[in-house]
From TrEMBL:
Domain of life where this protein originates: Eukaryota
Organism the protein comes from: Glutinoglossum americanum
Record's protein name: SprT-like domain-containing protein
Entries under Pfam families matching the protein: SprT-like
Stretches for region Disordered: 225-249
Length: 249
């Protein structure tokens, strides 16, 4: 296990292989792209945040395609089997993207685990594309493996960060910020509308409920930890997700 940093956050590099760990339908090429921070993104838009929200909500209300139905079946089967390892966030990312985000995030997001002091108090962080990583970067805290109650919490944290990545990809870093929500421009009305729509939709699929609670902080930094009630804090360049977690029994 190697370690390097990205934006001052310690990356915990755990190479994922299609024939090891969690058994799931995904190719090695897809896995490698997700774990390659130097991979060039294939898509980025500059639409207004409300338009991005409206497109996302409209897509959630459309009839499921055959590919989406297959993805949901795979996710349900994994949830029922409860046979998964920490590589599950890598291997299920593209299916979750297909079901909830129209496949927009695939090839446009770097996904990995992170540790160190910066990640002791947040479950996940999402960065806009910058010089050190040409794509959106979603980093999930390794501490989440100790404090999560299971696959539901891992998926809830991942989806929270994927919503941030969706708006960053569709709107860009500046346009994605909802300045009308001064207290927390990274979790404004459009973000919350999309999050609630996903939560409601997932109740019908029975496998990806967003069981994590959120509230807005009073400042840019929340002095909480993974064992405390959830917080979501942010600065102009990144999005944090603090979740209510319990140690795995």
């Amino acid at each position: 296990m190697l370690a390097r940093t990205l934006y001052g956050i310690e990356l915990v590099e755990r190479k994922v292989y299609v024939d090891r760990g969690t058994k799931y339908h995904i190719s090695q090429d897809e896995i490698d792209i997700l774990q390659d921070k130097d991979y060039k993104p294939i898509y980025q838009n500059k639409m207004k945040v409300r338009k991005a929200r409206d497109l996302a909500l409209s897509a959630l209300n459309r009839p499921l395609t055959e590919s989406q139905q297959d993805a949901i079946a795979r996710l349900k089967e994994l949830r029922r089997s409860d046979c998964w390892e920490e590589d599950v966030i890598i291997k299920t990312f593209n299916d979750i993207d297909l079901v909830l985000f129209r496949g927009i995030l695939q090839d446009n997001v770097f996904l990995g685990w992170a540790g160190g002091r910066c990640m002791k108090k947040c479950a996940g962080v999402t960065w806009a594309p910058r010089l050190l990583c040409r794509r959106c970067a979603i980093l999930i805290s390794v501490k989440l493996l100790d404090f999560s109650s299971g696959l539901r919490d891992l998926w809830a944290t991942l989806i929270h960060e994927m919503i941030h990545a969706y708006f960053l990809i569709e709107c860009g870093r500046i346009r994605s910020r909802e300045l009308s929500n001064i207290g927390d421009p990274d979790h404004g009305p459009c973000y919350l509308d999309f999050m609630r729509a996903i939560r409601d939709k997932m109740g019908g699929y029975e496998c990806l409920p967003l069981s994590v609670k959120y509230h807005q902080p009073n400042s840019g930094y929340c002095p909480s930890d993974l064992a405390q009630p959830s917080h979501a804090d942010s600065d102009p360049h990144r999005h944090h997700h603090h979740s209510e977690e319990r140690k795995r029994r």
